[in-house]
Design goal:
Blueprint (H helix, E strand, L loop, with lengths): L4 H9 L4 H6 L34 H9 L19 E4 L2 E5 L13 E5 L2 E4 L5 H9 L24 H10 L7 H9 L49 E7 L18 H13 L17 E4 L16 E3 L8 E2 L3 E3 L14
Parallel strand pairs: 5-8
Antiparallel strand pairs: 1-4, 2-3, 4-9, 5-6, 6-7
Helix pairs in contact: 1-3, 1-4
Length: about 350
């Protein structure tokens, strides 16, 4: 428990006292791509950052832990309003992948049909994730791969950590197809905001040194109203990374192959010496997970909607976070969701 308490205090308070942070509500605010020549992380998280987090006073920690905290669960059958903090993405058929540019694993462009779904408007914040830690469900982020600030996206969490948090809230991680649908919308755009090149006015990227509070670039919102779909931090997807996903019989449903099928595909790429097929990172030897969206340290062309990156599921890196998704019940109506505090 001692290892989780320092993180809890800081993510709940920032630079203020625990008591003040818990007693007032935070104001709502208003995520390696491309060219994988720049990889989000080529090493395990423990070697990415050396700065540690100071330990808070025991008395303040005790007051935080003793405060009742309950998980927020939002069942798929919610009727009458949008789930808190989520924005609806319309279902339909869209073009996923590309035939021009990008990496070989982004081809071919193909038609995919998805059902409507809800997607968190922003990446999960330190404050939101911290409540799951206090509840004893989630483990603390890696102290070497975490950025201080209540409204910053949580980082230093693995694919397993992200999935556990979403399940705690009655949700799940989005699939690759769902995420690309949320980015491209009905018009097949290249970036969430359209087809214009990324700028600092539209995204938190282009080689900056750390992420920004979620929702800091409202002009860069996606077609359905989501923030930070390109830049800020990479986002874990539910899918395992399949280099041949777009060639399989399940491609039209946005589904990758099974783990044995994926391992066979990876073995074939190694035998053919096609390392660049999956980007600049080595061809995996295990079933890894997909990350989408780009990050604050990434160049402009790496933020394209079709870019796919993969890393081991247990990695906890300083450029990766996540957001959650939820299926839409036909009886729910679209509404402007409240920002999760």
């Amino acid at each position: 428990m001692r290892r989780v308490l320092p993180y809890l205090l800081i993510c709940c308070l920032g630079l203020t006292s625990v008591c003040d942070a818990e007693s007032r509500k935070a104001k709502p605010s208003s995520g390696v791509a491309t060219n994988r020549s720049v990889s989000p992380a080529k090493r395990p998280a423990k070697r990415l950052a050396k700065r540690s987090v100071a330990r808070p006073a025991k008395r303040s920690v005790a007051r935080l832990v003793n405060k009742p905290v309950r998980p927020t669960t939002v069942p798929a059958a919610t009727v009458g309003a949008a789930p808190v903090g989520m924005v609806r993405v319309d279902g339909g058929t869209f073009t996923m992948g590309t035939d021009v540019g990008g990496e070989p694993d982004e081809r071919p462009a193909h038609r995919v049909t998805v059902a409507p779904f809800w997607l968190d408007r922003t990446e999960v914040t330190n404050a939101a994730y911290g409540r799951c830690v206090v509840a004893g469900v989630c483990r603390s982020p890696s102290r070497r791969a975490w950025h201080r600030g209540r409204r910053l996206p949580v980082t230093g969490v693995s694919w397993h950590d992200a999935g556990k948090y979403c399940r705690w809230r009655g949700r799940r991680l989005p699939t690759e197809a769902q995420f690309e649908r949320a980015v491209r919308g009905p018009d097949g755009r290249r970036y969430p905001w359209g087809n214009s090149k990324p700028t600092s006015r539209l995204t938190i990227a282009l080689g900056v040194r750390r992420p920004a509070p979620v929702g800091s670039r409202p002009e860069g919102r996606g077609p359905y109203g989501h923030d930070d779909l390109a830049g800020n931090v990479w986002e874990w997807m539910a899918d395992e990374y399949d280099p041949f996903a777009y060639r399989r019989s399940t491609a039209s449903r946005g589904r990758p192959g099974t783990c044995p099928e994926i391992l066979a595909a990876l073995g074939q790429l190694r035998r053919q010496r096609k390392r660049g097929f999956t980007g600049s990172n080595p061809i995996p030897r295990v079933c890894e997970a997909v990350l989408r969206g780009g990050a604050y340290n990434y160049p402009a062309k790496g933020l394209r909607a079709t870019n796919r990156v993969h890393h081991p599921k247990h990695w906890r890196i300083k450029v990766a976070g996540f957001r959650c998704a939820l299926g839409v019940n036909p009886r729910t109506r679209s509404a402007n969701p409240r920002t999760e505090k």
